[in-house]
Amino acid sequence: MIDEEHRAAFQADGFASLPRLVDDTELEWLRGVYDRLFSEHADFTTGDYFDIAGRQDSDRPARLPQIVRPEKFVPELVESAHFQRCRAIAAQLLDIPEDELDFYGHAILKPPNYGAATPWHQDEGYMDPRWRRRGLSIWTPLDEATVDSGCLHYVPGAHLGPVLPHRHIDDDDRIRGLVTDAVDPAAGVPVPLASGEAVVHALRAPHYAGPNLTDQTRRAYVLVFMGAAEEVADPEPRPWLDKD
To answer: Which residues constitute the signal peptide according to the record (predicted)?
Structure first.
């Protein structure tokens, strides 16, 4: 499923392109699940659906809508061949047994023509600094992901550095999305993918996805896998996570 080249790229660069993980039949099933979840989002009252790039009280259409833990609503996602493959890959790359991995999913939608950019950030920037968890994200587009439609970009090797300073998008703490200004965008390397292919990245790897400038929806399904939490003796401050 993965080889030493994938492992070496993940360790050195913080990300690695993966072979196609989803066959045509499962891809169509995932698209159907995905579309149904987003069409029914008005029924979600637990905060699982939100616009990561905008205020939740805004009247304008969501520019970067997201559903967290879609497996809560469709348990079959965890039984899928795609999930089993991804968990096996995570276990190999993290050297953690599959049954010791925690996980959760994201469904992230970039609508055609106006889907917002996902600004530079690190997944670890969202995490409580009092605890450290080894983990990774596996990002699978259900549609072709190009530079114009919003494929991911990475800075090779930047995952070996610290968690960078972050702030809320537009400096508005009513917006959930975070951005770091400590990345040189010119250093970013795009990773275009065909539908059903995937890219894996470390939780500390800075990454970005541009706006969707095409006439096609860009649907992405993300699985995050993590080992057990380890307490940090002297946690670094992350003031952007502080709540009044």
So the answer is: none
**96 Cβ contact partners less than 8 Å away, ≥ 6 residues apart:** 90, 134, 227
**pTM tops 0.90:** yes
pLDDT of residue 45: 56
One CATH from 1.10.10.60, 2.40.100.10, 2.60.120.620, 3.30.70.1290 for 4-232: 2.60.120.620
Among 192, 106, 81, 77, smallest CA distance to 145 is for 192
Contact status, residue 205 vs residue 15, Cβ threshold 8 Å: yes
The structural domains of the chain, with segments of one domain joined by +, span: 4-232
Q: Which of 173, 72, 54, 204 is nearest to 114 (CA)?
A: 54
